[in-house]
């Protein structure tokens, strides 16, 4: 997994932000590894070696640079080069606060622990434990610098149930103790600045970096027409890139509110987390947000691939930095996708709001404002759905889906696209459109493609210049073959192309 040395050499000398998170430069003479955008004086080429991930550099004995902070780098697209099974394992590892044993992880993936270890050794060159420890230590460093959380709480948030164990792993990687990092005068000053927001309820503040380009305004526009009152909100600003996203959440028994703002000059999102005890769920919450806003997308590769299609190239030119809008929770979004079958976006959002208000719990957020939590499958176990404004057939489909989720018939734990869609269409009342649309947004699967979507068919038909002619689903699938493995991004671009003709309604 070693990157191309010539490419890395040019990128680090130019401090090219497009390569941030793609590789790390390790300096043999100092024992430190850095991001390619590190402001320090570039070392001589003979004194460096390159690694694709921070975990590899740390495992080789290098310690993270305290100046450029590898913990703050965008997610590495290098993981996309590994096998599908390893990708699924990494996502499952990051979805939980605590570490899972190799055997537990392998069981969830349907393979043996021995085979999983072999895959990690073959594709990453590290063990699952090495990857987990390095990523968690880097995450903990960010909390030490950016928050006022006590060291013990940071250890717990990073997945360590023992402060002693946390201190040991952290010192192995940084060659300094967590307390020493916290006592650094520069760190203390930045902590003070990052938490002096003037708000009555002091939030936990974390930052999520990305590689430019990043079209934040387009993401907010997409979410704005689909927000559920009381659950989520898009806060507009005079500068579209300065708008904010607000959402209630519940993770592992902890409930709270998060507020996400864009800092385009720093290439990151600022996340404020309100809620007592929410420090314990910061890590899985961060991973959910990275998926929600598609922060780890390799925009350059996606754009380069889709630019080969003339129609998509036109949209990409008008809207660089395309990102796939994700979903906070797969179950929640699948339920909403079922509600959205054959009705408008506005109608589907209204009905989903009735589900939230009728079955969800309310709680008091910052400054006493009331928020709603979208109901879980367990809370909807006995729901009838007959009074939310859907047909009896659709209500039965909803009940069937809830029961299937509770019985484990629907797998939201990183299944492959074909398996997930097969599970979905096996349920009465759910077709291919719902399955692929849910996979696309609910599970952020980049190759999902709802070929029968009306917006997609109109966009492709419009290109043919035949008036109101629409393409057929078969024609859409044939055209989409050249877009693999980024068909979901192509679908999003086709919907965006309809904005050139306001008379065409957008897809759901």
Summarize the entry for a quick read.
By secondary structure, the protein is α+β, with helices and mostly antiparallel strands. The protein has 22 helices and eleven strands. Among the domains are: about 5-70, DNA Methylphosphotriester Repair Domain; about 80-185, Arc Repressor Mutant, subunit A (Orthogonal Bundle); about 195-295, 2-Layer Sandwich (TATA-Binding Protein), CATH 3.30.310.20.
Reconstruct the topology from this structure.
Layout: H1 5-14, E1 24-27, E2 32-34, E3 48-51, H2 54-59, E4 63-64, H3 84-95, H4 102-109, H5 113-123, H6 128-146, H7 151-157, H8 163-174, H9 178-183, H10 185-195, E5 204-209, H11 216-224, E6 232-235, E7 244-251, E8 254-263, E9 268-274, H12 282-292, H13 299-306, H14 310-318, H15 330-339, H16 345-359, E10 361-364, E11 370-373, H17 392-406, H18 417-425, H19 432-442, H20 454-463, H21 473-480, H22 487-497
Parallel strand pairs: 2-4
Antiparallel strand pairs: 1-2, 1-3, 5-9, 6-7, 7-8, 8-9, 10-11
Write up this protein.
The chain is of the alpha+beta class. Among the domains are: 5-71, DNA Methylphosphotriester Repair Domain, CATH 3.40.10.10; 78-187, Arc Repressor Mutant, subunit A (Orthogonal Bundle); 197-296, TATA-Binding Protein, CATH 3.30.310.20. It has helices at 5-14, 54-59, 84-95, 102-109, 113-123, 128-146, 151-157, 163-174, 178-183, 185-195, 216-224, 282-292, 299-306, 310-318, 330-339, 345-359, 392-406, 417-425, 432-442, 454-463, 473-480, 487-497, and strands at residues 24-27, 32-34, 48-51, 63-64, 204-209, 232-235, 244-251, 254-263, 268-274, 361-364, 370-373. The strands form three sheets. Strands 5-9-8-7-6 form a five-stranded antiparallel sheet. Strands 3-1-2-4 form a four-stranded mixed sheet. Helix 14 packs across helix 22 and helix 18 crosses helix 19.
